[in-house]
UniProtKB/TrEMBL annotation:
The lineage of its organism: Eukaryota, Fungi, Fungi incertae sedis, Mucoromycota, Mucoromycotina. It comes from Phascolomyces articulosus. Transmembrane segments: none annotated. This is DUF51 family protein. It comes from the Eukaryota. Residues 1-196 form the AMMECR1 domain.
Amino acid sequence: MPSTIEVATIEHCYYCFDVLVSYLEDKKAVQPQFANDEYPLFVTWNIETHGDMHLRGCIGNFNAMPLRTGLQQYALTSGLQDRRFNPISLREVPRLSCGVSLLTSFEEGQDYLDWEVGVHGIWIEFINDHGHKRTATYLPEVIPEQGWSKQEAIDSLLRKGGYRGTINDKVLKSIKLTRYQSSKAQATYSEYIAHKNAQS
């Protein structure tokens, strides 16, 4: 896997728009021109509502995937199958922005606090109230956007992963934490359209 952090590009976002729009219009997406390196990746859709941007879907994979097939798969999965939201409709597309996060530099943390806000994304494994192993993650930008401390982020992540019991020292010390970094690119729909027009 390439080691550089500056790996995500706006072309990756344009391709995700292309995949989503082509699917919704029942057309074939254009083949991308970027390199087909392998990365763990996430695709995030946000939508503008009354002047503010709100999450509209975010799903990814921690297994390295070739970028062309990975972005194609998760542009649709995050846009249409995020269980927190209804599938994105064609009429919403002009208000969308797309973010592509390519994940790098995975390291095992010494404990649940062994990471830096604004630098690392975190992925935790823990045992839930019923004795089952669960996992949950936040990408690097989520925690500073929410204004959380490390402890608040961990507590929120446990809840996101389905832990419903009391969060005490025993639970926190049982967490296995992996920290990672992310290269993120973003594009709005208007930027995507300007790019398409420049190509035609």
